[in-house]
Design brief:
The chain is built from 14 helices and 23 strands. By secondary structure, the chain is α+β, with helices and mostly antiparallel strands. β10 and β11 form a beta hairpin. α7 runs antiparallel to α9, α8 crosses α10 and α13 runs antiparallel to α14. It starts with 16 loop residues before the first strand and ends with a strand. About 55% of the residues are buried.
């Protein structure tokens, strides 16, 4: 699909930023997505890294059976508070966002058809799609958007978008001149506002007044309507025949949570599942060479991040953090944990083959220097670390085990504290001094409000660097993309020095797909079922 995305205008009143989609773009958006935790909404474009099958003429009918590894009993259908792959996929199946991001991380239309900002990116006017219906038949209007934004900005709602938006916006700056227009008057400039919204898995819109997200009578505007929901177990949805986008072919989706990665793969091998979410590289060999099942691979899809709480010893000592990074043999991790399917990186959440990656940045491995730093920090006999991890996220345990081995030569002894899917996201992740996270590739500037700034949505290290904040303020005030790239690189180069965030590798990813599944699109951070059909 061709996308003639209109670049920021250099003409017109005040040299305003204009983002107006072509007709083809309007038809291309609105797909289901799994966000930062697994997969996020975006449109497909030529030359993207991903897969899209075509085995004949598309036809309606059939239920797609999905086996998902990451889910728990605390899963919720509140878009603002989703954490697991299971909850994210369900949410993205029934709701729609204002915008999505394409494979170049540019915002594209969804429930918003176009938007424009003033010259200094402090005022945004968003034009909404007309004629859209909620699943109960009522009209989608600006009132629904106002209500959703009020939840984004309310700390009590615990929305993940609060950390991204509250530094720039409060409800006093939000207005709806009519049923199809929203105006945002920001407290300070944010030139990447629509990319921030479009790239965030918490940005899907809910109907005005909804407070119950238990699954009963829950409605959205998305391509599928929820029919059953069992947290941590599975869910079902049927096609929304009144969907505002193009025709949806599947009769429905049936998702089952299977935390054991081997059992999840076995479901695909036996024909009990048509598609899986991402599977660990250690299991890929079980699929290769089969005629009834395909292994679909995606280059440099995600990074593994080892986070250390800088409020507590020993991680409040920069010498310890530097030692941890120097002790990590990243090439060895690619070789062992990823079996060669990935790339070593230098503690920035940007893939090395991305145009946003800082030029000439390479990781440093020096276990002797690491030992000296540890001795200077008061650990002459080595350092013990207890690392929280779960095997419900494909590949996480493999990455943790590989890291455990490669840092031994520097005197770092790692004990893995393995949590169940039900407890990791509440008692391990961000609740213990050292834990593992994973990032799919995202629009690079979004990472600062996600993980690094004082007001970050997920302050993984509980640390803030004023030098990074200052650089990011410059970034968000810049309307020239080349300057945005430069400032993003400069900010990440500073952050990699001061934050206790080890990002050693980017890994390729893969999922299993039955040969009867066609029209399924996945790329770096996307799954789109709108055009999926079964042979």
């Amino acid at each position: 699909m061709d996308h003639n995305f209109q670049k920021p205008s250099t003409s017109g009143v005040g040299n305003a930023l204009n983002f107006a989609p072509s007709r083809r773009q309007v038809l291309a958006v609105g797909g289901i997505s799994l966000g930062a935790l697994l997969l996020a909404a975006c449109t497909n474009s030529p030359g993207s890294t991903g897969s899209e099958q075509s085995g004949g003429t598309p036809k309606k009918g059939g239920t797609l059976r999905i086996s998902i590894g990451d889910g728990g009993s605390s899963d919720t259908l509140d878009p603002g508070t989703i954490l697991t792959a299971n909850a994210t996929l369900a949410v993205k199946s029934i709701y729609d966002p204002l915008a999505v991001t394409d494979t170049d991380f540019k915002a594209q239309p969804a429930l918003a058809t176009s938007w424009e900002a003033n010259a200094d990116a402090t005022k945004w006017t968003i034009h909404l799609r007309e004629g859209v219906k909620w699943h109960d038949g009522s009209d989608f209007t600006s009132k629904d958007v106002m209500y959703t934004i009020s939840r984004w900005l309310d700390p009590k709602s615990e929305s993940a978008l609060n950390g991204f938006l509250s530094p720039y916006l409060d409800m006093g700056g939000v207005s709806a001149p009519d049923a199809s227009t929203i105006v945002l008057n920001l407290k300070k400039a944010n030139s990447v506002l629509m990319e921030t919204i479009g790239a965030n898995p918490a940005s899907h819109l809910i109907k005005e007044g909804v407070t119950d997200f238990s699954g009963k009578n829950l409605v959205g505007t998305g391509p599928f309507k929820l029919t059953s929901w069992s947290p941590g177990t599975g869910w079902k949805a049927v096609r929304n025949d009144a969907y505002w986008g193009d025709t949806v072919y599947l009769d429905g989706i049936e998702a089952t949570v299977t935390p054991d990665q081997g059992a999840k793969l076995q479901a695909a091998l036996s024909g009990a599942a048509d598609v899986t979410d991402m599977i660990p590289v250690s299991l890929w060999a079980g699929i290769q060479g089969r005629n009834d099942l395909a292994l679909e691979t995606i280059k440099n899809r995600q990074s593994w991040a080892f986070a250390f709480d800088q409020r507590v010893a020993p991680f409040n000592d920069s010498r310890v953090l530097d030692a941890i990074k120097l002790a990590t043999d990243r090439d060895k991790m690619v070789e062992t944990a990823l079996l060669g399917h990935g790339s070593a990186t230098a503690d920035v959440p940007i893939a090395p083959d991305s145009s946003w990656y800082p030029a000439n940045l390479k990781p440093e491995y020096d276990p002797d220097k690491a030992k000296k730093l540890l001795a200077d920090a008061g650990f002459p006999d080595g350092l013990d670390i207890k690392l929280s991890v779960t095997d419900s996220v494909p590949g996480m345990l493999d990455a943790a085990q590989a890291w455990q081995q490669v840092v031994k030569s520097a005197g770092i002894n790692v004990t893995l504290d393995q949590f169940s899917p039900d407890t990791y996201w509440s008692k391990g992740w961000m609740a213990t001094p050292a834990f593992v996270d994973t990032f799919t590739q995202f629009f690079p500037p979004v990472g600062f409000d996600a993980f690094y700034r004082k007001s970050a949505a997920w302050p993984l290290t509980h640390f803030a660097d004023p030098a990074v904040d200052k650089k990011v303020d410059e970034l968000y005030a810049a309307t020239d993309q080349r300057r945005q790239v430069e400032l993003t690189q400069e900010a990440y180069l500073q952050a990699r020095k001061s934050y206790g965030l080890l990002i050693p590798v980017f890994s390729d990813a893969a999922y299993a797909r039955s040969s009867k599944v066609n029209g399924l699109f996945m790329n770096l951070d996307t799954v789109d079922f709108r055009k999926t059909w079964l042979a």
